[in-house]
């Protein structure tokens, strides 16, 4: 459990650590805003496009070694990104994105295999750790950069990667023997479902995750500017709104497992998550003065949504091998769509000169999550 949570701290933090020093990086490297944006958008694209490759790697190496490979990739990418020059920064960013993709696919599979009886609770704690890692690096990167420069500030987080790798190795060293052979054996055994990717629940969860991830990355990218435009907030207050959106994810991450225990089917949980998402968008449209409440509800929704979808993957997988394949497909398809979220919303805001149309697009993504997620939750569980 400790190894999983330490691993999770490194699955979003290294990406968002760039955000508060992005303008400094752009000035130092002599690049424009669009190029600098690649340092945050490239990893999300990797999450989508590289998920099949991540599933293949985990099948060949085994879960235990696969996670160590992912941590090694995050470590190498973090150091490379801090070296001199734009090519190194981009190469390091891609390396981090590819390595985190392996982790994204691996964690739900590890939880479903080794902690199945507590899967909902562990998935909630995992989702919370993703947000804690993000907030930790968002909060501390700037103070470190003020003392040492942005390169050292970003590279300093490699220490957390090393700690996670040591704990993971210690926790799994007795399991690593034969994991690759076991994975190959699992892949050679036919799943009880004739063709796993034809199951409606797999496609339903893929579409639902696409809606969830699109809304999350679009709101994360543009919420500070929206609050400045619509409410006249200064940068500090707008940043506080973004912090509320990220921090309150902990409520959803820990609350959804409790609700799944009370409402095992999952339909009411998905519906409640979508209502909280809708409160964010509708609230900002019709009553923007209540933005702290809407940001809090949206934050709980984004933390609860990803927890609910991962719980449904674990619940509906027939085997460890199918869990890995479903995790790769759901996240691969979802993150490809999510990578377009900030660009689509930003383009619509520029074209219309306001936030109504962009927010309506986010509303459409939430509607997709609601319909696909409800249908997936209604699918009978495998016996």
Principal-axis shape: globular
The computed structural class is mainly alpha
Report low-confidence residues grouped into runs of 5 or more.
177-181, 188-193
In the CATH hierarchy, the architecture of the largest domain is Up-down Bundle
What is the rounded Rg? 20 Å
Distance between the termini: 27 Å
Helix content: over 70%
Organism: Pseudonocardia asaccharolytica DSM 44247 = NBRC 16224
Pfam family, one: MFS_1
Transmembrane segments: 33-59, 66-83, 89-111, 123-146, 152-169, 201-223, 243-260, 269-287, 293-314, 326-345, 357-377
InterPro entries: MFS, MFS_Cyanate_Porter, MFS_trans_sf
Describe it.
The structure is a single chain. The protein has helices spanning 2-9, 13-16, 22-29, 33-49, 51-61, 63-81, 86-114, 119-148, 150-155, 158-172, 179-188, 200-231, 235-247, 249-262, 267-286, 291-316, 320-338, 341-352, 356-378. By secondary structure, the chain is an all-alpha fold. The chain folds into two domains: 1-188, Growth Hormone, Chain: A (Up-down Bundle), CATH 1.20.1250; 190-383, MFS general substrate transporter like domains (Growth Hormone, Chain: A, Up-down Bundle), CATH 1.20.1250. Helix 14 (249-262) crosses helix 16. The protein is globular, with a radius of gyration of 20 Å.
């Amino acid at each position: 459990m400790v190894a999983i949570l330490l691993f999770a701290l490194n699955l979003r933090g290294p990406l968002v650590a760039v955000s508060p020093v992005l303008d400094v990086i752009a000035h130092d490297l002599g690049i424009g805003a669009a190029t600098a944006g690649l340092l945050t958008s490239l990893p999300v694209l990797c999450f989508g496009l590289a998920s099949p490759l991540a599933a293949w790697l985990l099948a060949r190496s085994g879960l235990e070694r696969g996670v160590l490979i992912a941590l090694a990739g995050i470590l190498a990418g973090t150091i490379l990104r801090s070296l001199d020059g734009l090519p190194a920064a981009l190469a390091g960013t891609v390396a981090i994105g590819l390595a985190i993709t392996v982790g994204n696919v691996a964690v739900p599979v590890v939880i479903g295999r080794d902690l199945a009886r507590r899967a909902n609770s562990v998935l909630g704690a995992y989702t919370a750790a993703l947000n804690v890692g993000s907030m930790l690096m968002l909060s501390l990167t700037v103070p470190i950069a003020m003392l040492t420069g942005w390169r050292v500030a970003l590279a300093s987080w490699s220490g957390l990667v090393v700690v996670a790798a040591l704990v993971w190795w210690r926790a799994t060293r007795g399991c690593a023997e034969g994991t690759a052979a076991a994975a190959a054996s699992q892949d050679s055994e036919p799943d009880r479902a004739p063709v796993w990717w034809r199951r409606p629940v797999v496609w339903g969860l893929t579409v639902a995750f696409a809606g969830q991830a699109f809304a999350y990355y679009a709101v994360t990218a543009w919420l500070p500017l929206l609050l400045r435009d619509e409410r006249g907030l200064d940068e500090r207050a707008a940043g506080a709104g973004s912090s509320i959106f990220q921090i309150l994810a902990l409520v959803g991450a820990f609350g959804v497992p409790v609700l799944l225990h009370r409402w095992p089917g999952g339909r009411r949980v998905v519906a409640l998550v979508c209502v909280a998402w809708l409160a964010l968008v509708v609230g900002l449209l019709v009553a923007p003065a209540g933005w702290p409440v809407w940001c809090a509800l949206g934050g709980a929704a984004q933390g609860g949504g990803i927890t609910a979808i991962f719980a449904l993957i674990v619940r509906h997988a027939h085997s460890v091998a199918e869990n890995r394949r479903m995790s790769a497909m759901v996240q691969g398809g979802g993150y490809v769509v999510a990578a377009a979220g900030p660009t689509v919303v930003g383009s619509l805001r520029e074209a219309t000169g306001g936030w109504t149309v962009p927010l309506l697009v986010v509303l459409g993504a939430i509607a997709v999550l609601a319909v696909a997620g409800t249908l997936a939750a209604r699918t009978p569980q495998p016996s």
